[in-house]
Specification:
Blueprint (H helix, E strand, L loop, with lengths): L7 E3 L7 E7 L8 E3 L4 E6 L12 E8 L1 E2 L11 E7 L6 E4 L3 E2 L10 E11 L3 E7 L8 E4 L7 E5 L2 E4 L6 E8 L3
């Protein structure tokens, strides 16, 4: 794709060289699709896209995803998932959560947030994946945008296929900007 990523960084007031906030390639205001891939769904985060300085490390403190349950396709008991964080190679698991119950959307989108008990520091790119409980159904379904920056995939560790849309997954980070 000729399009360059326009990543989103939501940042509270901090010192110019310090960065803290949510990073994402997709915005919930742009939701256009649901993903029912029965394998993992992942977003590869390039810290350079967010102007972050890798030498000092980027600390990941929280993860976020949004889910969709259609009235004609209820999740039933398949309403949980696991978050995984992979290293830049897309194969090495740095962290896996316990099973998390996905928040169903109501009249507004409700994120499902997960706080790491011990933050992880990375010095390069990383992947955030959602592993759905429904190994045959893909439930719970995640949501995605209709634009493509080449950052979202489905598959499994080391065997990823581009989705052609962007997952609405986020990571809450602390780090430093290039100044």
């Amino acid at each position: 794709s000729d399009r360059q990523p326009v990543p989103k960084l939501e940042q509270p007031g901090e010192a110019k060289d310090s960065v803290a906030g949510w990073i994402s390639y997709g915005d919930i205001a742009d939701v256009a699709y649901l993903s029912s891939a029965v394998t993992e769904r992942a977003t590869r985060f390039s810290i350079d896209d967010f102007g972050l300085w890798s030498d000092s490390g980027v600390e990941i403190t929280q993860l976020r995803a949004y889910f969709y349950e259609g009235t004609d396709d209820l999740w039933g008991t398949e309403d949980s998932f696991v978050f995984k964080i992979y290293a830049a190679d897309g194969s090495t698991v740095l962290h896996a959560s316990a099973a998390i119950t996905a928040n169903r959307q109501g009249t507004a989108w409700t994120p499902t947030d997960y706080t790491l008990a011990t933050p992880i520091t990375v010095t390069g790119d990383f992947w955030v994946a959602v592993v759905p409980e429904g190994t045959a159904s893909g439930k719970p379904y995640t949501v995605a945008t209709d634009y493509d920056y080449g950052c979202s995939f489905y598959g499994s560790a080391g065997a990823w296929t581009a989705m052609g849309i962007e997952n609405i997954f986020s990571a809450n980070i602390n780090g430093n900007r290039w100044i």
